[in-house]
Amino acid sequence: MRLYTITEAAEALHLSVPTIKRYIYEGKLRSTKLPGGHHRIPESEIARLAGTVQSAEAPAADSSAENRIAVLEQWLTELEADVERLSAALEVMSRYCEQHMGTVPGQAAAASPGANHRVVILGPGCKRCDALFELTGAVLKAMGRDDTTVTMVKDLDAITAFGPILTPALVIDDEVVLSGRVPNEATLRALLRQHLG
Question: What is the pTM of this model?
């Protein structure tokens, strides 16, 4: 019996690779996991799912069509989130290029002396930027760091002063220590401890 790779299964079923992976993890598509962690799908599963997909395309199978629409709506939501993230990053990069075209970018200003640390979240207002802001505030509170203020900077001119970075970004005492992602709580706590002393 032939075993298909995820990509081959996606092509055979006229579905996307993420959809095939989701079907595997949701148990809708049986696969064999190789020692290296790669999935292989038996030909019988391809045939079974192909029958389901064909019946979903038939007008009489309303519930299957609804399921397919639900999957497509979920995929669309994921794509919209990716577009939002990339749009925010491109906006920051574009503004940086406008400001620094033909000039050598300078260093960020040194941290102001004093007992308080300054933590800044850079981001034009996307969901991931808000998530990093909320998570940072919660972690600092749990750490008992009353000497640290957390602010959110959405102004593109202020963001690009730190250079061509991906948002969301975490800045501690005017030094960019993380950009382009929202870490898990443990990673963020370790990062804050490292930079706040």
Answer: 0.47
